[in-house]
């Protein structure tokens, strides 16, 4: 790929990246009257994914840094694939991320102007109506190594082209019968310049323009002209548009209209993730996930539903930075930012995922006492709460081993452990059912150890979490793992083979503390010693709580860094 001489070949100079450097040059030379205006131009054919967040952050960041304006423009030129639901969804995603656009524009608002400009190009002899079929056109286009051939319709008169184009617009021809093409150069080394299509016929209803149009502009024809109409100064986009820049420039030059500057940056790739709407939409349509907002999806709605804070996404995107060469970020880095943020903000609660009943045999039958628990040791202002303690408790089954292995410091026959914020307990009996499964433990507690410390200075090695049986709430907990087991699912011919078959495990009968009874949707808490969990925004109800696992506690990124 060749890069324009305009673009600074150094990726970064000091702390200034190549986009900032280019913008600064333009401000200095007065190229756009010292203005800066950017736009994020998604197609409303799906929900935004974390790759889009990178583009938004760059567009938003450049505008903010130079006192400019950042807008959202829907590239809504493909009515069959686009829906109002996606328009609304993408706006909501941007608001949630905290990237408010100054204005919301639609390419479809410019359909009249684009049509007039197309007519102008026909008048100039630079556009023609072609009757070749799609297959023929492909064949005429040539290849990367072989030049293309001129279409037999290329030399139609201006009058004939004007007439045919008007009739295309009037709906006289079926879908695919004709296209309007720019007349550039069928032997160009850049395939995008081999007489690219400007308009195709699609008798399809558009979510904004209804049935007014049956011809729709192609991306390249709509894009630069929309930028021009809006007064965009720096049209920032991902690297795959680099080869489109000569066409972007060509259209603007022929029309002699205001000419923004396109600059490309590397796309975001993340391990174990696919960032392509084409694949994401198949996951949704094939029922491989619950929807765009399935918590395993790399979409903004999916991450939000999983409990990922917007601030963590933004911190990750900042850290990845802006570059001109594609590279793949480790998903462990994103996870690291999620944990770092939630560690500071998420209230701690008790949650028992695999409950095993414990009876404290020397604790009075009807007694309930309230014990003080710290809400967040990382946040002094988070305060404390009272949690009920009683004779019958739940602990997590994996905190008990009947014959403990050497380094197991939690509960075992005869062993003493601390109940978090509670007492020391010692296991005296293991109760099993007929099949030999452990159904209950009997323990004694030491009344002197309230709050978790023994006055005689005696120590225990393990501290475990617990809940009072009579007070615990039952909850469904959805344990999520990576959607793709493969590190590079994008390299598979069939991405389904890269999926992780165990990416969702549902725990129907988890127990959580009573303070969560009224927890609002999207609340994220830490189940002590287990990880971060978010109240599901779709399925959770008071009395029938549903939690999504956001992320576990162990930071593999720190480990990766440690290895150097
Ligand atoms: P997708 O790969 O999801 O189909 P797209 O490019 O077709 O992406 P658009 O809605 O057209 O989706 O994208 C809007 C903008 O987002 C484009 O300018 C594109 O450059 C940018 N973008 C899309 N994916 C990424 C990514 N992974 N990293 C950075 N920018 C991206
Ligand atoms: Mg696209």
Q: What radius of gyration results from the CA coordinates?
A: 31 Å
Bound molecules: adenosine-5'-triphosphate, magnesium ion
CATH architecture of the largest domain: 3-Layer(aba) Sandwich
Please indicate the count of domains: 3
The coarse silhouette is elongated
What do we call the CATH homologous superfamily of the largest domain?
HUPs
Number of DSSP E strands? 29
Mean of all residue-level pLDDT scores: 95
Helix and strand content put the structural class at alpha/beta
Q: Within the largest sheet, what's the order of strands?
A: 14-27-28-29-25-26-15
Low-confidence stretches: 1-10
The tally of helices reads 13
Distance between the termini: 33 Å
What proportion of the residues form beta strands (DSSP E)? 15-25%
Helix content: 25-40%
User: What is the CATH top level name of the largest domain?
Assistant: Alpha Beta
- Please describe the biggest sheet, giving its number of strands, its sense, and whether it closes into a barrel: 7 strands, mixed
In the CATH scheme, what's the topology name of the largest domain?
Rossmann fold
């Amino acid at each position: 790929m060749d890069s324009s001489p305009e673009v600074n070949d150094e990726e970064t100079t000091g702390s200034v990246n190549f986009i900032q450097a280019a913008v600064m040059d333009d401000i200095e030379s007065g190229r756009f009257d010292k203005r800066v205006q950017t736009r994020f131009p998604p197609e409303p054919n799906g929900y935004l994914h974390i790759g889009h967040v990178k583009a938004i952050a760059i567009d938003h960041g450049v505008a903010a840094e130079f006192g400019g304006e950042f807008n959202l423009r829907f590239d809504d030129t493909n009515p069959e694939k686009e829906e109002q639901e996606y328009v609304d969804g993408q706006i909501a995603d941007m608001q949630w991320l905290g990237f408010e656009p100054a204005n919301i524009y639609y390419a479809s608002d410019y359909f009249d102007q684009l049509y007039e400009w197309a007519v102008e190009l026909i008048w100039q002899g630079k556009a023609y109506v072609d009757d070749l079929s799609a297959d023929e056109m492909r064949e005429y286009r040539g290849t990367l190594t072989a030049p293309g051939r001129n279409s037999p319709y290329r030399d139609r008169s201006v009058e004939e082209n004007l007439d045919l184009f008007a009739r295309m617009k009037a709906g006289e021809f079926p879908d695919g019968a004709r296209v309007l093409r720019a007349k550039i150069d069928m032997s160009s080394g850049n395939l995008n310049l081999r007489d690219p299509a400007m308009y195709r016929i699609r008798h399809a209803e558009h979510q904004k323009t209804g049935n007014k149009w049956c011809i729709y502009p192609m991306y390249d024809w709509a894009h630069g002209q929309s930028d021009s109409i809006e007064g965009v100064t720096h049209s920032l986009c991902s690297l795959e548009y680099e080869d489109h820049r000569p066409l972007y420039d060509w259209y603007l030059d022929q029309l002699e209209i205001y000419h923004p500057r396109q600059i490309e940056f590397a796309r975001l790739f993340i391990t174990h993730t696919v960032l392509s709407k084409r694949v994401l939409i198949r996951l949704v349509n094939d029922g491989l996930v619950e929807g765009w907002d399935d918590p395993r999806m790399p979409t903004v709605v999916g991450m939000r539903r999983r409990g990922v804070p917007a601030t963590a996404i933004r911190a990750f995107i900042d850290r990845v930075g802006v570059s001109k060469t594609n590279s793949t970020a480790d998903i462990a880095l994103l996870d690291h930012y999620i944990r770092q943020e939630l560690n500071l903000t998420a209230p701690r609660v008790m949650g028992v995922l695999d409950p095993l009943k414990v009876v404290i045999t020397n604790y009075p039958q009807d007694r309930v006492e309230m014990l003080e628990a710290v809400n967040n040791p990382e946040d002094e202002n988070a305060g404390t709460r009272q949690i009920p303690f009683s004779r019958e408790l739940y602990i997590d089954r994996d905190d008990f081993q009947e014959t403990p292995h050497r380094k197991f410091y939690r509960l075992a026959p005869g062993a003493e452990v601390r109940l978090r914020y509670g007492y020391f307990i010692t296991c005296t009996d293991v109760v099993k059912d007929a099949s030999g499964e452990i159904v209950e433990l009997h323990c004694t507690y030491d009344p002197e150890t309230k709050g978790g410390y023994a006055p005689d200075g005696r120590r225990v090695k393990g501290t475990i979490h617990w809940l009072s049986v009579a007070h615990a709430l039952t909850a469904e907990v959805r344990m999520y793992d990576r959607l793709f087991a493969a590190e590079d699912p994008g390299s598979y011919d069939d991405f389904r083979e890269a999926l992780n078959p165990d990416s969702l495990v549902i725990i129907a009968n988890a127990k959580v503390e009573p303070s969560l009874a009224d927890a609002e949707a999207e609340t994220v808490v830490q189940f002590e010693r287990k990880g971060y969990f978010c109240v599901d925004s779709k399925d959770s109800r008071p009395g029938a709580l549903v939690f999504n696992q956001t992320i576990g506690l162990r930071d593999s990124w720190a480990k990766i860094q440690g290895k150097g």
